[in-house]
TrEMBL record:
UniProt organism field: Streptomyces davaonensis (strain DSM 101723 / JCM 4913 / KCC S-0913 / 768)
Gene Ontology annotations for the cellular component aspect, listed alphabetically: membrane
Signal sequence bounds: none
Protein name: Integral membrane protein
GO biological process: lipid A biosynthetic process
Recorded GO MF terms: metal ion binding; UDP-2,3-diacylglucosamine hydrolase activity
Keywords: Hydrolase, Membrane, Metal-binding, Transmembrane, Transmembrane helix
Region Disordered, annotated ranges: 492-512
PANTHER family the record matches: PHOSPHODIESTERASE YAEI (PTHR31302:SF31), TRANSMEMBRANE PROTEIN WITH METALLOPHOSPHOESTERASE DOMAIN-RELATED (PTHR31302)
The UniProt record lists the keyword Transmembrane: yes
Transmembrane annotation, as ranges: 43-62, 146-166, 173-194
Domain Calcineurin-like phosphoesterase residue range list: 259-426
Database matches in Gene3D superfamilies: 3.60.21.10
Keyword Metal-binding recorded: yes
């Protein structure tokens, strides 16, 4: 028998081992565990994707623009814990209605008043009797459109996000279907809990929190609807007249050799003022806007958003605080671009003119007269006069000073060529004893939103001041009046200082 070498025996054994599959034996007495799927985690992930996708869909495309009576509105559905309806009336605030209980809230933003539709109501007051039915029809039509668009939005959003997360068309379609089911369930819950009487008990916020005291209790409006119809007709008439006046500004070709300052004051939270100011800046090619205060009505933080259009008016904005403007108002303006806040006599050189001013020492948004108010104003004017003397001594004299109250402005007589003021809601030009000219501007807001409560809206007033670029002295000024006694006209009056044209009295030049 032939012997096999040891090396060959080892190689053959190794090959057998390699061909034989290995099996790991578990120790006796142990149980093998296999990983089980967790369906609740998958379900939670799917619900998260559905909710997030539906919310993104509503946020991007889930809104409709609807005309409700004379107003243009935007209606949107938003996720909510308690449901209800929120009506935003910028910049006045909002009111909330407990209209339904569901995980979705209806948001209605009042964008603007359409002058043509409002004028139609004014011209045909008999239509006011059917205004309630018209508004109900508009809201119902908008709600149907919103429901259809919301279905498309949530299905599209959830499906798109599901496809991005899972990368499986079946999972994505499941997410879209679940989103539609949730929206339908929310709509059914809202319909089942709908409370039409919620409009009689709204919750006011922002500046509208004082609305019940201004317009009366909602139940009184319902029971005395004839009286309310007359009030509504008067308010719509006056608001329409103010809007119409903004489109009648005359064209003007300014002299390029002058510095043009637009003097405004006492806007009192009238949103129409920004369009008027922007139109004047463009037509007169204004270099600087000077605002002598009372831009707000109550000086609350809720009003601050009203100031945002100032950044887009097209000219630097110089501002001093009025008695309706708070320190909160002043701080908000200081953070806006292209705004120069003057207080405590500090000076700024803007567009070739040096301005200095002081804020009103009184804060009386409720229009009360505090004890010693006159003495406080005179003291503020004295501080401003001292600052003007310091500027002159430093070789940097001020060209235009600004204060809100005329009583404070008169204290700087002899220290500056021109001082601007407001507060009185009518315009004046006065030459003081020591040679300082005092210019008091009327209300560029037509006395604010409260002006529409009268028989006629107050006129909207502003001025264009023309300065020589070399001497930086006032050469002429135009007084601009919009509306007048409820008229939709604009009138511009040119005035010349006596030292420029002795013996010539100003002659008004009405616009076409």
């Amino acid at each position: 028998m032939a012997r096999v070498p040891a090396a060959a025996r080892i190689l053959t054994a190794a090959n057998r081992i390699r061909r034989t599959p290995r099996t790991r034996q578990a120790p006796p007495g142990t149980v093998q565990l296999t990983e089980q799927p967790r369906p609740w985690i998958r379900a939670l992930g799917l619900i998260t994707v559905v909710l997030l996708g539906a919310w993104l869909g509503l946020l991007i495309v889930g809104n409709v623009r609807v005309s409700v009576g004379p107003m243009d509105t935007t209606m949107t559905l938003r996720p909510s814990v308690s449901g209800g309806t929120k009506i935003n009336v910028s910049p006045l605030g909002a009111l909330q209605l407990d209209s339904h209980i569901a995980p979705v809230r209806l948001d209605v933003n009042v964008d603007r008043l359409d002058p043509e539709r409002a004028q139609a109501l004014v011209d045909h007051p008999e239509r006011l009797s059917g205004l309630q039915d018209e508004v109900a029809h508009d809201v119902a039509h908008g709600t149907r459109d919103l429901a259809l668009r919301s279905c498309v939005a949530v299905v599209t959003g959830a499906t798109a996000l599901g496809l991005a997360v899972y990368r499986r068309p079946r999972r994505a379609l499941a997410a879209g279907g679940l989103a539609l089911t949730l929206l339908a369930a929310s709509g059914g819950t809202a319909a089942a809990t709908w409370n039409p009487n919620s409009v009689l008990e709204p919750k006011f916020s922002g500046l509208l929190s004082s609305a019940p005291s201004l317009v009366g209790d909602a139940r009184n409006i319902v029971t005395e609807f004839d009286v309310y119809q007359k009030e509504l007709a008067r308010l719509v008439t006056n608001v329409t007249k103010l809007y119409d006046a903004t489109s009648t500004l005359p064209a003007y070709q300014p002299d390029p050799s002058t510095i043009r300052v637009l003097h405004v004051s006492d806007i009192h939270l009238n949103p129409a003022s920004w369009k008027i100011i922007a139109s004047l800046v463009e037509q007169y090619q204004v270099n600087v806007i000077a605002d002598t205060g009372d831009t707000m009505d109550h000086g609350t933080a809720a009003e601050n958003g009203f100031l945002d259009p100032i950044e887009d008016l097209g000219a630097p904005y110089v501002w001093v605080r009025g008695n309706h403007d708070s320190i909160l108002t002043q701080r908000y303006l200081e953070d806006l671009e292209n705004v120069h806040v003057l207080d405590e006599g500090r000076a700024r050189t803007i567009a070739g003119l040096r301005f200095a001013g002081i804020g009103d020492p009184q804060f009386t948004p409720d229009r009360t007269n505090k004890t010693g108010a006159e003495a406080t104003q005179e003291l503020a004017g004295a501080r401003l006069a001292s600052a003007l003397r310091d500027q002159k001594a430093a070789g940097r004299p001020v060209d235009v000073a600004m204060a809100h109250e005329p009583s404070a402005a008169r204290e700087v007589d002899g220290e500056v060529p021109l001082i601007l003021a407001g507060h009185l809601h009518h315009d004046e030009m006065e030459m003081l004893e020591q040679g300082t000219r005092l210019r008091i501007e009327g209300s560029t807001g037509g006395s604010g939103l409260r002006a529409v409560e009268g028989d006629y809206p107050d006129p909207i007033e502003a001025s264009i001041l023309y300065f020589d670029r070399d001497t930086r002295r006032l050469q002429a000024w135009d007084e601009i009046e919009l509306g007048g006694l409820g008229l939709t006209t604009a009138e511009v009056s040119r005035h010349l200082p006596e030292e420029n044209q002795p013996g010539v009295s100003p002659t008004p030049t009405p616009s076409p």
